[in-house]
């Protein structure tokens, strides 16, 4: 008698459990299908440049001339690849020390100002749309560089500076989390040996949190690498490798956004853009792997 | 006449509104082990942390009164806290080795107090590890990560790290309470050896430990020192009824 009672009570729970399982399963299935179709779509389009149109892979990766309408058309994407890497890495070089020092201020020096003032400001910075960053870059940074340096003001310098502002919140936030999660005993241990605050930060806090700091920097680079609009607005968009930081050039993303409206679906010009997208996607995978590897190293 | 290594005079500690330590005056004799015992929350750890100004790191914490290290009051605002902490070392409940090699853990302090010479550093590292009775276990892996050591070894490493800056006084905050019985007895042996060279103040929950390692014992209750005397006296013939109740296990 008691047993059947138990079963009556248990049945609705089982149904609930079943519905929950099916629902979450459908969601994850949807996610997986989306990701795989994206990868498949980009890859099939991107690879057809080589398979269908017969463009040499080596020519695309190392060629210096991008003339899709030329006779014969040339698809050398090296200037774009160079532009993407140089702007994002330079942006990280500018933003990383700033982000780390801001995090040190927020966690070590003045947690109160950090929590009540800096944190919201950084969140705000992260929420500004990229077109606004680009617009400010175009109206402030480009004219400034034009006055200060030879050239039109556009180029890698302007691009990396705008990107540096854009990735600063990412780097600062992750650096702040890393500093805050440092075991309290480590700092005390260092202070108790008569180390100063600066020595403690430089010798204990920084090295111990380095893998996490690196994660933030790589995430920042990944974001800079994928950013299109803001960069396109300040980089000049000339398809060649520049001789200086203040000369017009292009990135993978800016090349795609600039030309995508002007090519016919299925044409070699269109497929070549997909090849650029494929390179972007593969680089993102590389960044994700680097981040995962760094995360693994964090748990010493 | 016993020399006094460290002495607290009418020390009060406030955490915000909470008055954690009341008017504590204690003298710690040179080259002796003094145990601070008492139930959880009685203020003994707070008191200990005040002695090397570790409570400075907690913004809401206010420490008033005098602390004399030899003939210098170290609780003043003009005290060079960094120099002071070199003279008063500290070991915590949880071993806190730096995420560095065993060698670098020991060399960290001396390096910051100006020892640059490699040979000299090597010597300090070896001596400190020997004194902390961990040299034999670590001499072949000095440049391996300190985090690979066991908890007991890590704690002895932390003691070696403290010794390396040649302090006068070593403060220990329940140094064995996170360790297994064998590691605990090793730490206790070590404390007995270290008192030949250092004055030691140890906070412990374990009354047997206090009885085994210390020369003098202070019994803390609700932020007050109830009784302070030779360890033998405290454990066999305490004057205060509350001390007696505590050591016989009636509360705590």
* CATH architect. name of the largest domain in chain A: Orthogonal Bundle
Structural class of chain B: alpha/beta
Largest interface: A-B, 19 and 28 residues
User: What's the structural domain tally of chain B?
Assistant: 1
What is the CATH homology-level superfamily of chain B?
Answer: P-loop containing nucleotide triphosphate hydrolases
Strand order of the largest sheet of chain B: 6-7-8-3-9-10
Helix content of chain A: over 70%
Q: How many domains would you count in the coordinates of chain A?
A: 2
Using the CA coordinates, give the radius of gyration of chain A.
25 Å
Give the number of helices of chain A.
12
Helix-strand string of chain B: EEEHEEHEHHHHEHEHEEHH
The count of DSSP E runs of length 2 or more, i.e. the number of strands of chain B, is: 10
Regions of chain A with pLDDT < 50 over 5+ consecutive residues? none
Strand content of chain B: 25-35%
For the sheet with most strands of chain B, the description reads: 6 strands, mixed
Q: What best-fitting shape of chain A do the alpha-carbon axes yield?
A: globular
Pfam families (chain A): BPD_transp_1
Protein name (chain A): Phosphate transport system permease protein
GO molecular function (chain A): phosphate transmembrane transporter activity
GO biological process, one term (chain A): phosphate ion transport
């Amino acid at each position: 008698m008691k047993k059947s009672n138990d079963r009556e009570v248990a049945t609705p729970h089982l149904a609930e459990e079943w519905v929950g399982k099916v629902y979450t399963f459908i969601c994850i299935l949807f996610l997986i299908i989306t990701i795989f179709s994206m990868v498949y779509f980009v890859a099939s389009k991107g690879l057809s440049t080589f398979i269908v149109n017969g463009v040499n892979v080596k020519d695309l990766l190392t060629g210096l001339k991008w003339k899709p309408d030329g006779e014969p058309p040339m698809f050398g994407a090296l200037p774009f690849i160079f532009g993407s890497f140089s702007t994002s890495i330079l942006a990280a070089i500018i933003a990383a020390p700033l982000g780390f020092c801001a995090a040190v201020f927020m966690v070590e020096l003045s947690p109160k100002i950090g929590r009540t003032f800096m944190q919201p400001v950084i969140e705000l910075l992260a929420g500004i749309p990229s077109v606004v960053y680009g617009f400010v870059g175009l109206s402030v940074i480009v004219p400034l560089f034009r006055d200060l340096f030879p050239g039109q003001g556009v180029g890698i310098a302007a691009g990396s500076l705008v990107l540096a502002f854009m990735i600063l919140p990412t780097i600062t936030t992750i650096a702040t989390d890393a500093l805050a999660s440092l075991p309290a005993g480590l700092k005390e241990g260092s202070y108790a040996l008569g180390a100063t605050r600066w020595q403690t930060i430089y010798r204990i806090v920084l090295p111990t949190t380095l893998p996490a700091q690196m994660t933030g920097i790589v995430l920042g680079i990944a974001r800079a690498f994928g950013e299109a609009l803001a960069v396109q607005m300040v980089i000049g968009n000339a398809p060649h490798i520049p001789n200086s930081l203040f000369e017009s050039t292009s990135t993978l993303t800016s090349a795609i956004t600039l030309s995508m409206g002007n090519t016919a679906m299925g044409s070699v010009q269109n497929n070549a853009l997909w090849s650029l997208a494929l390179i972007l996607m593969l680089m993102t995978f590389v960044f994700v792997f680097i981040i995962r590897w760094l995360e693994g190293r964090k748990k010493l | 006449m016993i020399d006094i290594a460290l002495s607290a005079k009418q020390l009060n500690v406030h955490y915000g509104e909470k008055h954690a330590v009341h008017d504590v005056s204690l003298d710690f004799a040179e080259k002796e082990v003094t145990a601070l015992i008492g139930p959880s929350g009685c203020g003994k750890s707070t008191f200990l942390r005040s002695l090397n100004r570790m409570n400075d790191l907690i913004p809401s914490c206010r420490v008033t009164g005098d602390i004399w290290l030899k003939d210098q009051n170290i609780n003043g605002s003009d005290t060079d806290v960094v120099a002071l902490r070199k003279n008063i070392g500290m070991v915590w409940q949880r071993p806190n080795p730096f995420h560095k090699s065993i060698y670098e853990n020991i060399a960290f302090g001396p390096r910051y107090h100006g020892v640059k010479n490699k040979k000299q550093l090597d010597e300090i590292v070896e001596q400190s590890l020997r004194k902390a009775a961990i040299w034999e276990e670590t001499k072949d892996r000095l440049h391996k990560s300190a985090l690979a050591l066991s908890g007991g070894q890590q704690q002895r490493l932390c003691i070696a790290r403290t010794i390396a800056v040649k302090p006068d006084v070593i403060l220990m905050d329940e140094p064995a309470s996170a360790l297994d019985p064998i590691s605990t007895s090793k730490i206790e042996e070590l404390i007995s050896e270290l008192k030949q060279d250092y004055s030691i103040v140890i906070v412990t929950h374990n009354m047997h430990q206090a009885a085994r390692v210390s020369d003098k014992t202070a019994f803390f209750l609700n932020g007050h020192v109830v009784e302070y005397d030779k360890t033998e006296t405290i454990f066999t013939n305490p004057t205060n009824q509350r001390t007696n109740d505590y050591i016989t296990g009636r509360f705590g």
